[in-house]
Amino acid sequence: MSLIEQKFARLSTDNAPGQEVRQRAEGLDALLKGDTLPGTPVDFSHGDVNESAFAPTPGSLEAFVAGVESGGEQAYTEYRGRADLRARVAEHLGRFTGSPVSGSDELIITPGTQGALFLSIASTVAPGDKVAIVRPDYFANRKLVEFIGGEIVPIEMDYLNNADRAGLDLGQLESAFKAGVKTFLFSNPNNPAGVVYSKDEIGQIAALANQYRATVIVDQLYSRLRYAGVEYTHLRAAGIDPGNVITIMGPSKTESLSGYRLGVAFGAPKLLDRMEKLQAIVSLRAPGYCQAVLRTWFEEPESYMEERIQQHQAIRDDLLRVLRSVEGLAARTPQAGSYLFPRLPKLTVSPQDFVRILRRQAGVTVTPGTEFSPDTGDSFRLNFSQNHAAALHAIERTVELIARYRA
Amino acid sequence: MSLIEQKFARLSTDNAPGQEVRQRAEGLDALLKGDTLPGTPVDFSHGDVNESAFAPTPGSLEAFVAGVESGGEQAYTEYRGRADLRARVAEHLGRFTGSPVSGSDELIITPGTQGALFLSIASTVAPGDKVAIVRPDYFANRKLVEFIGGEIVPIEMDYLNNADRAGLDLGQLESAFKAGVKTFLFSNPNNPAGVVYSKDEIGQIAALANQYRATVIVDQLYSRLRYAGVEYTHLRAAGIDPGNVITIMGPSKTESLSGYRLGVAFGAPKLLDRMEKLQAIVSLRAPGYCQAVLRTWFEEPESYMEERIQQHQAIRDDLLRVLRSVEGLAARTPQAGSYLFPRLPKLTVSPQDFVRILRRQAGVTVTPGTEFSPDTGDSFRLNFSQNHAAALHAIERTVELIARYRA
Q1: Of residues B65, B75, B278, nearest to A11 (C-beta)
Q2: What protein family does this chain belong to (chains A, B) (predicted)?
Q3: Residues 6+ apart with CB under 8 A from A124
Q4: What ipTM, to 2 d.p.?
């Protein structure tokens, strides 16, 4: 294999959310027991943005159309995004995170938070650099570091055996920094486990980063969707050196605006400058007209967000109740976000095959745990930002299939 | 400088189109002679998509809105783009280029042609690989190769002293292949010179690529905007091994849809697979709702394209007539696209300073020739997809300033 073939062999996307249509069904028939279960198919690999579930926030399309109508100034923005929008969003994010953000040099608008992750990793990590990555965490984190040629140093998170903290192994993190890790990348709330790092954990991450002069990239994509009674600490406002932290957010999740491909990264101006240079050759800019939709961000109608969060919490609780009726299944209650990450009991088929069977026999699409950590192959992730009734019925079918294939 | 600092030091965007607002004005005052010239400011660094110039093609916004209304299936497409849109666009492109394209495995929808360029280069070139790049050519080509860590082998194009061919030095190209170049990247029509490669040139490029088993990436972004009597040869239909060619196009130029950030790459399935894997970690997908706008592509109202081309040709001819009144200025007539790339006569200020003066004293923004080749520092590029009258007056002011600063 040539160097470039090796590089791409590690970037498999066959199990990635939305890519299931490209999977082959080979060898599945021989494993099947019993009949197909009827019911509305539910794709838990991502949120449902249709009217019957969680549609885009009000006013988003109108803001887009106004952007098109304003013409060239919206189509051709600076590579880092239109200046007045950056200023507006920066003010909201400063207030939200508890530490001011300058729209002129501390923020970039990106094509989705995926774009923000790529730009921040590629602007921070050189080939051969060591990067600390949490297990489990968002699957693209690992792939991004591998693509750049960085070396991954895994940090364990014992999310199942903790309740008031995420469960990060801070000793491992310090050892990693001692061993030369200069970049730490993590999501908070965690994707896939839905756990929130405690104030103490965030404080210690900040202190270690300062002590070892490491750069921390924190993906806070789900930080607006927090459930009742959950305390949330923004790393950037927790005493970390502002020259060494990048925060990533976007309106794709709680706001259901994923179809507009918008994200932002904000933090250290030196790194933001690099990110803009890189964006210039990767995609020029976040889609110009779509940027206009950011006018609605953090300006949603009053009580709108509150109601959305309550609706998600109700779905979460219903699904967990059904899942927990399964003996031997383990699931921590997510504190934020819209992911459940249950661990399956022992089955007669491999967890990977069970995921394929679930899709075939129950019309239920989930993302296998292997995507998030080599240690979580017996779990799967489901995004419960769905139509409530359809999701509940899909989980009832899932539970029925677990019983059918139980070891 | 650390490895990563070195990498980014080569990616300057200060002179890139649209970035001029971030430039400092230091030291300019001392160079100025005479007064400011009144007139509507014209930004020739990119096309004008306002109603007064070349607005987006009819039906594009309606197609976008229909995409939003169709919901999740348009928001969350496969990473390579929505299947039915790929099939539709592939059919058009097969007919347009004279060789069939499969929507299922030979085409990817990208965030603009910039996204397509990045993905194709990053999927083909490994660090240390040699890549042949034309001088002059689109400035991001060089930067992309440098960012990936490839080594650039320049190929000269004598565009000023040819009329019926682009003027590529085919001997240099063969020497480059002999010396180990495995990838050749070029734009046709050429950006910035607006010249079209002859049938013979394209045939020889195909033959050399086949002989040396090199991959060719051809950026045909402007291939729909061709002027009267110009013969155009699509490389992919000129006998090149289909497993070694990627063609890039998009609706940003002739169609003025740049604000939607859409492009496509089509060709070798093996390379397309890599590009999709990479897109998955760089931006996930081209903006979902925007993809729907591709329904209008190659389906524009009859005679619409023809009229657009005639309008561009009329502007081209008017601007060239005024520019050619300047003694010592050299400009080849563009055969396609909307760029002029005149070479200035000797001035009392450097060409770089003249570009800044032009912006300050005439309200005329152009892109300095240094962006396209180290050999074209005395030229500048202007995109004449503008309001006709405003562009003409801006060029009259430019000519007045050339006279004022002439050596």
Answers
A1: B278
A2: Belongs to the class-I pyridoxal-phosphate-dependent aminotransferase family.
A3: A183, A215, A217, A246, A271, B4
A4: 0.95
